[in-house]
Specification:
mainly beta; globular
Amino acid sequence: MESIKNIITVGQKVIAHKGECIGIIIKESDKELEVTKVNKKSFIAGGIKFTLWKVTNRDSIGNVRTDGKQRAIFNSQFDGKVTVEF
């Protein structure tokens, strides 16, 4: 993929999902953030930088999508991941 500018736009609201397991306790959280800056392969939302990890035509459980859509998955170092369908 050459650029993410046709997937993510400034002002777009995205949801960052974070899950962690501490012993037997599983904690999951979702945080809604607004995109403030878009670069070629990353974007900044809520002061957190998310970098493109991969683009795939598979859904969240690994099956190939039949509707022709793709998913772009972005990761941050500590604050979870963002998935955008396009």
